[in-house]
Amino acid sequence: MKDTLFLILKFVFALIILPVVVALTFAFQNELATFEPALRHTLWQGMVTYVLLRFFVYDFSAVYAFGQGIVTSVFQFLKPLVNAAPYVLPIYTILVLLVYAVISVMGKLSGYESVFIFLFAFTFTMHIVLTAQDLYKKDSIAGKPNYFFSMILVYIFDVFFMALLMSLILKGFSFTHFFQGLTGTSADIYRMIFKQLF
Q: If you ran DSSP here, which 8-state letter would residue 35 be given?
């Protein structure tokens, strides 16, 4: 009985925070829209390339599992985090952004920026898709309440963390504008829902 109640609460909580997911996505997209058209095109290419390769060539699950293993090894001494870290930390995307930052500081980025933007989009899409796939498979309960709850939290953390990291590394990405967009859109959605219900 207690387990059933807990699962229902998870599902309800996932529904309650769903507007945050929508607002987060819009805020992230709006900030990416400030990039030059060529870089925006490269972002889309990275995402679409991963999706096409996954469905028609190779799904990269072994690459993803290897990355998860690295994160697990790093966090093995922090027991509460060791289970969640591989899902919430897109290790390949983080590495791409760190290498980008180092090369940028060295002043040798010229001509390679689009490559890093492509790899960023590719690896982040891979992380989100394969994390969703992994969490979905692990939830055998009807209605997938654990999956929905976990995936929403992972998505929120990942996009928020990427926005913070990108604001520190990429020119033109403002975390302040992103956060303002997130909170403003979230408030608008909740107000609209409240008016519809009451």
A: S
Q: Which residue has the tokens 């207690």?
A: 2
SS3 (DSSP) at 48: helix
Give tens-digit pLDDT for 72-125. 887 777 676 777 778 888 889 989 888 888 888 787 767 778 888 899 889 999
Residue 140, SS3?
coil
pLDDT in tens, 27-51: 998 888 888 888 888 888 999 999 9
Residue 86 Rama label (left phi>0; alpha psi -120 to 50; beta): alpha
Q: What would the DSSP string read from start to end of 77-100? A: T-HHHHTTHHHH--HHHHHHHHHH
Burial class (CB within 10 angstroms; exposed 0-12, middle 13-18, buried 19+) of 74? middle
Which DSSP letter does residue 1 get?
A: -
- How many CB atoms neighbour CB 36 within 10 A? 11
What residue type is assigned to position 2 of the chain? K
Q: How far is CA 178 from CA 2, 28, 59, in A?
A: 39, 6, 31
Cβ atoms of 119 and 97 within 8 Å: the answer is no
Element (H, E) at 28: helix 18-32
pTM of the model: 0.84
